[in-house]
Design goal:
The chain is α/β, with parallel strands linked by helices and 188 residues long. It has one domain: Rossmann fold, CATH 3.40.50. It is built from five helices and six strands; from the N terminus they run βαβαβαβαββα. The longest helix has 17 residues.
Length: 188
């Protein structure tokens, strides 16, 4: 169930940045952890949507909690291989990700890099000084993603079929649907 946008999406222009959660937004969630490319399945039209939005947003980032590393379920090299596969598919669709940020830390440790803490967003800002955080959109499928967005002053877009679960500016069933709404708002 979609919610009406609390923001007029027509205000977003090519000075804005896009931040994306990975699991549940770009790829389908699985039982356990995506530790190899064979476990990584894009959500419907996600790669094409990212490619289309690259022409619209100034920068595109992935910010993802990956505690499977701290749990010993996967290595950073395995995660890098998954991300390389993801980027190759997006590239074949004509798109790109400027940078992927991930937190390997366990939930509950108070890690500054783990969402909802702002570490990954502030790291992106430090590395890409042209980012304006309050001219950014965060698309995620969890409460931690929405809190991350709120903590950094971003527009919070929640990917879900239920708009009653979290405080978000916009609720959509998929990344592809957000792109449709943005395209409609901009009459593209």
């Amino acid at each position: 169930m979609e919610s009406p946008a609390a923001y007029d999406l027509s205000i977003i222009d090519d000075n804005w940045s896009l931040f994306l959660d990975r699991d549940g937004v770009i790829n389908q969630r699985i039982e356990g952890y995506v530790s190899k490319k064979e476990d990584f399945t894009f959500t419907e039209n996600a790669a094409a949507s990212i490619a289309a939005m690259n022409d619209f947003f100034f920068r595109t980032f992935v910010v993802t909690n990956q505690q499977g590393i701290a749990k010993g379920i996967m290595t950073t090299e395995q995660l890098d291989a998954v991300h390389e596969h993801m980027q190759q598919v997006i590239h074949r669709k004509g798109g790109f990700i400027d940078k992927i940020y991930y937190s390997p830390d366990l939930s509950g440790t108070g890690s500054f890099s783990r969402k909802p803490a702002t570490g990954m967003g502030l790291q992106a800002k430090a590395e890409f000084s042209d980012i304006v955080l309050n001219k950014s959109v965060m698309i995620g499928d969890s409460l931690t993603d929405m809190l991350f967005a709120r903590n950094l002053g971003m527009i919070a877009v929640f990917v879900s079929d239920d708009n009653s679960l979290v405080d978000a500016d916009i609720v959509v069933p998929s990344l592809a649907r957000f792109w449709q709404l943005l395209r409609q708002a901009k009459s593209i």
